[in-house]
Design a protein that fits this description.
By secondary structure, the chain is α+β, with helices and mostly antiparallel strands. The chain folds into two domains: 2-302, Neuraminidase; 311-436, no CATH class. It contains seven helices and 24 strands. The longest helix has 35 residues, at 309-343. It is elongated and about 105 Å long.
Length: 437
């Protein structure tokens, strides 16, 4: 993310934070001039490299090696240990767009011929990233879209996003009095389909699209005019299933970005109810988006069905929850019946089950604390519950069996109890070996 603690104006630095909001840190700082080292950022797949739009003495697109963070960039242009120049933007021109495909093989950028909005020509270009180094942003790759301020309008494209393999891209283009989203061919720049029509119909500005990793969804921000406060929306890649994700009149939410697994949506937000509104980074689970879609399905005659990692993951987790809830209930009831048969007394039968349940709650609490530091698999709680019940009840049966054996051998109650406890490691290993034999 671009970062400038306590301030809204440029120049910007490169910052980072964990998805759970911890470990906020500056990854790279540089000369404090113009836009700085972090005009725009885009990950290059899982290489650990970030592509950034830098303007200090000259304007250039560069890569930053995050393995060298924290890093202090002292040069005003050219390469250093952490930064490598990919594209050079000639003097007097500008670049206001950057996207890298999910596989890290294709890069798209925007270049404009001047800073005068009445005279510039804007070009969106695309190229293979491999082998691209220290080249002119005007000449590298191939042009896909050209927009002239003189013959068309001073409103140039407001954000674009490449698909996972770079074969298509979504872009925000001027449409009537607003902006609409279009899906375009990554080879030719030709329109495949128009995704939204509220720009030309109602003057809304649909901006900064981002295509999910599975290529099924486009997230974007939409606002009423240049001074409106944007909210987040999602739409299917075929233009169906438009859904509003956020709706707060006093908050601006914009520039959404999908996580690589398509299960989270990060975005920047500015809360105007604060005394000094600043931009912060938020992350929403995809559950929120799917809830919005299901609510729309329930209240309208149009049925929207979703596919992709996000939807399949949600369905998978739902099925797991339902299956294991039933399994846990069946397991507890079965265990209770067995305990009643062994002990013959309800209170005694309930004690090992209650102890197992308390142990499970304690284990889940520990897991919750661990999950604050690292992401855990969705099976963790399920396995913890299964093992907790099994171990709690099985060890109780081991102890009772040993107690009864010692009593049958003629020991007094207290001595028989000690024999059952002290034998536990040996008895447990024997019990585990028998099924293998």
């Amino acid at each position: 993310m671009t970062s400038k603690p306590g301030e809204l104006e440029r120049p910007f630095e490169i910052g980072g934070v964990y998805p759970n909001g911890t470990n906020l840190a500056t990854l790279a700082a540089g000369p404090r001039y113009d836009i700085g080292i972090a005009g725009e950022l885009s990950w290059i797949a899982d290489t650990g490299l970030l592509m950034t739009n830098e303007r200090i003495s000259i304007h250039e697109y560069m890569t930053f090696d995050t393995e060298l963070a924290p890093f202090n960039r002292t040069v005003s242009d050219h390469d250093d240990d952490a930064f490598t120049r990919i594209l050079v933007i000639p003097g007097g021109q500008g670049g206001d767009g950057l996207a890298v495909s999910g596989d890290g093989e294709t890069v798209m950028w925007l270049i404009r011929t001047s800073h005068d909005p009445n005279n510039y020509t804007v070009t969106v270009r695309i190229a293979e990233l491999e082998g691209l180094e220290n080249e002119s942003a005007n000449d590298a790759g191939r042009p896909l879209i050209t927009h002239s301020a003189r013959t068309q309008s001073p409103d140039f494209p407001m954000g674009f996003s490449l698909s996972e393999d770079g074969s298509t891209f979504a872009i925000s283009l001027k449409s009537g009095h607003g902006f609409d989203l279009y899906l375009m061919d990554g080879s030719t720049g030709e329109e495949i389909r128009q995704l939204t029509t509220s720009g030309v119909d109602s003057g809304l500005e649909n901006l900064y699209p981002d295509i999910s990793e599975d290529g099924q969804w486009v997230a974007f921000s939409s606002q009423a005019g240049a001074d409106g406060r944007p909210d987040l929306h999602v739409i299917n890649i075929d233009g169906s299933g438009l859904a509003k994700v956020t709706d707060a009149s006093d908050v601006s939410e914009m520039r959404p970005s999908w996580s690589p697994d398509g299960l989270k949506l990060a975005y920047q937000s500015q809360n105007f109810t604060d005394d000094t509104p600043n931009w912060d980074i938020y992350v929403d689970e995809a559950e929120v988006i799917l809830d919005v879609i299901e609510e729309a399905n329930a209240s309208s005659g149009l049925r929207v069905t979703t596919i992709g990692n996000m939807s399949v993951g949600r369905l998978f987790v739902k099925m797991l929850d339902e299956t294991f809830q039933k399994g846990d209930m069946i397991g507890i009831i079965t265990a209770l019946i067995i305990m009643l048969a062994v002990f013959g007394v309800v209170v005694a039968a309930l004690i090992p089950i209650l102890i197992a349940i308390v142990s499970i709650f304690a284990a889940v609490g520990i897991i919750a604390m661990i999950s604050l530091a690292r992401e855990l698999n969705e099976f963790t709680i399920i396995v913890t519950t299964m093992v907790g019940l099994a171990v709690g009840i099985d060890y109780t049966l081991f102890i009772v069996q040993r107690f009864r054996e010692e009593r049958d051998n003629g020991l007094e109650r207290y001595d028989a109890y000690n024999g059952g406890i002290h034998c536990q490691p040996q008895c447990s290993s024997q019990a585990l070996r028998w099924p293998l034999l």
